[in-house]
Amino acid sequence: MKDNLALIEAGGTKFVVGIGGFDRQIRFRTRIETTFPEETISRVTDWLLGHGPIAATGIACFGPLDLDPDSPTWGYITRTTKQHWSMTDVAGAFGKALGCPVALDTDVNGAALAEWRWGAGQGAQSSLYLTVGTGIGGGAVVGGRLLGGLSHPEMGHLRLPRHPADHDFGGICPFHGDCLEGLASGPAITARWGASLSELAPDHEGHEIIAWYLARAISTFQAVLEPSRIILGGGVLETPGLLDRVRREAIAASGGYFVGDPGEIVVSPKLQNDAGLLGALALIEQNLPGVRGDHGTSGG
Question: In CATH, what class is 120-269?
Answer without folding.
Answer: alpha beta
